[in-house]
TrEMBL record:
<feature type="binding site">
    <location>
        <position position="163"/>
    </location>
    <ligand>
        <name>Zn(2+) 1</name>
    </ligand>
</feature>
<feature type="binding site">
    <location>
        <position position="103"/>
    </location>
    <ligand>
        <name>substrate</name>
    </ligand>
</feature>
<keyword id="KW-0479">Metal-binding</keyword>
<feature type="active site">
    <location>
        <position position="317"/>
    </location>
</feature>
<dbReference type="InterPro" id="IPR050138">
    <property type="entry name" value="DHOase/Allantoinase_Hydrolase"/>
</dbReference>
<feature type="binding site">
    <location>
        <position position="321"/>
    </location>
    <ligand>
        <name>substrate</name>
    </ligand>
</feature>
<dbReference type="Pfam" id="PF12890">
    <property type="entry name" value="DHOase"/>
</dbReference>
<feature type="binding site">
    <location>
        <position position="290"/>
    </location>
    <ligand>
        <name>substrate</name>
    </ligand>
</feature>
<feature type="binding site">
    <location>
        <position position="317"/>
    </location>
    <ligand>
        <name>Zn(2+) 1</name>
    </ligand>
</feature>
<dbReference type="InterPro" id="IPR002195">
    <property type="entry name" value="Dihydroorotase_CS"/>
</dbReference>
<protein>
    <recommendedName>
        <fullName>Dihydroorotase</fullName>
        <ecNumber>3.5.2.3</ecNumber>
    </recommendedName>
</protein>
<keyword id="KW-0862">Zinc</keyword>
<feature type="domain" description="Dihydroorotase catalytic">
    <location>
        <begin position="58"/>
        <end position="247"/>
    </location>
</feature>
<feature type="binding site">
    <location>
        <position position="71"/>
    </location>
    <ligand>
        <name>Zn(2+) 1</name>
    </ligand>
</feature>
<feature type="binding site">
    <location>
        <position position="163"/>
    </location>
    <ligand>
        <name>Zn(2+) 2</name>
    </ligand>
</feature>
<feature type="binding site">
    <location>
        <begin position="335"/>
        <end position="336"/>
    </location>
    <ligand>
        <name>substrate</name>
    </ligand>
</feature>
<comment type="function">
    <text>Catalyzes the reversible cyclization of carbamoyl aspartate to dihydroorotate.</text>
</comment>
C-alpha cells in the first residue's frame, strides 16, 4: 500500500465543517472537508445537511504533521509500545503520518517485515505508518539489507536507516547510497562514529561528563560522520538525511554541504531544541538519550539552523522504553525519550514564542519538508481546495500540563513531565476523518469502522 492515492480514500466519511479556523494562523475562514479532501474554503460556507460542525473559534489550521523518526517497537517490544498505541500518541500530537524505525525485533530488513508494519499501521487506522527499511541486514553494518525488495514492495519504502546504529563502514555507506538512488529513496544516517563514541558513551563530553564520571560522547563523533557522508552523497548523487542533529558543528557542515548543492537534509528533535546537558547532574535516566543533550551553545545553534532552514525538519525520535529498561542507574538505563505528544508544544515554545518561526514556518518544518523528504505526496500539502484533508487544528492560547500517566504511549519516559507546554491539539484529520476531536481520540468503534473501510 502507498499512503498517497488510495482510490476512494476518505470516501464515505461524514463531511466536516470547520467554522472560523485560521489557516496557518491567518484570517478566520470556514473549511469544508468531504470525501477525504478539502472541499471548500471561504466565509459562511453552506453546511451540507449531514455535516459535523466544529466551531473552531480562531484555532490554527495546519497541515498534519509528519514524523520522519518514530520508534513504534512492534514487533518485539510490545511491552514498551505497539503500532496502535504509538499511532494514538501520534494522532494526539497532531501527526497524520509517521515513519516507523527499523530497529525492531526482528529488524525491518525484508519486504515481508515492512509490509507487516504497514499492515498493522493500517489496521490501527490513526496515522499513515510508513515503514523505514534497514540499510544493513540485522542493523549489523556488514551486508546490505534487501533495499530493492523493500522499495518495490507494497509498502513502497523510501526511507532507509540503521538508526540506533551508524552505518560506519564507508564502503557499505557508499554502496547503500548507490543502491537506493534509482528508487528516489533517502538514507537517514544515525551519525555516531563508533570508534569515537561507543555504546557506553552517554553524556556530552566535556567538563560536566568528567565531573559526573559518565563516559563522554564527543560532538566530533557526529560531525566527522556527517562530513564524510555529505562527501559520499555528493560523489554518488544520492539523497542523504541526517538524523537527530545535536551539535552546532554539524550545522556548520550541513550549511557548507548545502551551499555546494549536495542533496542533504537534516532533522532536529524537540528535546535537543529545549533541554541542555546540565540536567544530567541529577543522574535521572529520563534525560539519557542518543545523541546526548548538549550545552546551551549547541541548543542555540540548532534553533538558528532550524529557523534558517539548514536543518530542514523537526523529527521526534519518539523512543518509548518500559520502566524495567529505563529505571536504572544512568549508565545502565536505555537511551531514549518519548516525543510524539509533546513535540508541538516544545516547538511552539522554542521556535514560535521566541519569534524564530511563524505558523507557516512551523508547518514547513513539521509537515511540508518531512513529507517531501519521505516522498509522501498526500501529506504536507497546501491548505487549498482539492488537497487531501490531512490536517491538525491547534488552539494557540491554551497550555497543558505534561502528565506521564495521561499520555497515550505505553511507556512513561517523557523528559517534560510536570512542564506546562503551549498549544493544544484540538483535532486531527486523516483523509477528512477525525482521529482526534476535542483533544481526545475519536471513539474506538468509529475508528475500527473507518480502518475497515480503508482496507
Ligand atoms: N534515540 C535514542 O536514544 N534511542 C533510540 C535508538 C538510538 O538512536 O540510540 C531507541 O530506539 O531507543
Amino acid at each position: 500500500m502507498s499512503e498517497t492515492k488510495r482510490p476512494g480514500a476518505g470516501a464515505g466519511t461524514r463531511p466536516v465543517l470547520l467554522r472560523g479556523v485560521r489557516p496557518l494562523g491567518g484570517q478566520p475562514v470556514d473549511v469544508l472537508l468531504a470525501d477525504g479532501l478539502i472541499a471548500g474554503i471561504g466565509s459562511s460556507l453552506q453546511t451540507p445537511p449531514d455535516a459535523e460542525l466544529i466551531d473552531a473559534d480562531g484555532a490554527v489550521l495546519l497541515p498534519g504533521f509528519v514524523d520522519l523518526h518514530t520508534h513504534l517497537r512492534e514487533p518485539g517490544r510490545e511491552d514498551a509500545e505497539t503500532i496502535a498505541t504509538g499511532s494514538a500518541a501520534a494522532a494526539l500530537g497532531g501527526f497524520t503520518a509517521v515513519h516507523a524505525m527499523a530497529n525492531t525485533n526482528p529488524v525491518a530488513d525484508t519486504a515481508e517485515m515492512v509490509e507487516q508494519v504497514a499492515r498493522l499501521g493500517q489496521r490501527a487506522g490513526l496515522v499513515d505508518v510508513r515503514p523505514v527499511g534497514a540499510v544493513s541486514k540485522g542493523l549489523a553494518g556488514g551486508q546490505l539489507a534487501e533495499i530493492g525488495n523493500m522499495a518495490r514492495s507494497a509498502a513502497a519504502v523510501r526511507v532507509f536507516s540503521d538508526d540506533g546504529s551508524c552505518v560506519s563502514d564507508a564502503r557499505l555507506m557508499r554502496r547503500a547510497l548507490e543502491y537506493l538512488k534509482p528508487f528516489d529513496a533517502v538514507l537517514a544516517q544515525h551519525a555516531q562514529d563508533p570508534r569515537l563514541a561507543d555504546a557506553s558513551c552517554c553524556a556530552h563530553e566535556g567538563e560536566l561528563s568528567g565531573r559526573l564520571g559518565l563516559a563522554g560522547w564527543p560532538s566530533v563523533a557526529e560531525e566527522s560522520i556527517v562530513a564524510r557522508d555529505v562527501m559520499l552523497a555528493e560523489h554518488t548523487g544520492s539523497r542523504l538525511h541526517v538524523c537527530h542533529v545535536s551539535s552546532g558543528g554539524t550545522v556548520e557542515v550541513l550549511r557548507w554541504a548545502k551551499a555546494r548543492g549536495v542533496a542533504v537534509t537534516a532533522e532536529v528533535t524537540p528535546h535537543h531544541l529545549l533541554l541542555t546537558c546540565d540536567l544530567l547532574s541529577t543522574y535521572d535516566p529520563v534525560f539519557k538519550v542518543n545523541p546526548p543533550l548538549r550545552p546551551a551553545e549547541d541548543v542555540e545553534a540548532l534553533r538558528a539552523g532550524l529557523a534558517e532552514g539548514v536543518i530542514d525538519a523537526v523529527a521526534t525520535d519518539h523512543a518509548p522504553h518500559a520502566a524495567h529498561d529505563k529505571d536504572h542507574a544512568f549508565g545502565d538505563a536505555a537511551f531514549g525519550m518519548l516525543g510524539l505528544q509533546t513535540a508541538l508544544g516544545v516547538v511552539i515554545e522554542t521556535m514560535r514564542v521566541t519569534g524564530r518561526l511563524d505558523w507557516a514556518g512551523l508547518a514547513d518544518r513539521m509537515s511540508v519538508r518531512p513529507a517531501q523528504i519521505g516522498r509522501l505526496t498526500g501529506h504536507g500539502r497546501p491548505l487549498a481546495v482539492g488537497e487531501p484533508a490531512n490536517l491538525t487544528l491547534v488552539e494557540e492560547s491554551s497550555s497543558w500540563l505534561v502528565e506521564p500517566a495521561a499520555l497515550a504511549s505505553l511507556s512513561r519516559n517523557t523528559p517534560f513531565a510536570g512542564r506546562e507546554l503551549p498549544g493544544r491539539v484540538l483535532a486531527t484529520f486523516l483523509r477528512g476523518r477525525a482521529t482526534v476531536r476535542d483533544g481526545a481520540l475519536a471513539e474506538a468503534s468509529e475508528l475500527a469502522e473507518a480502518a475497515e473501510a480503508s482496507r
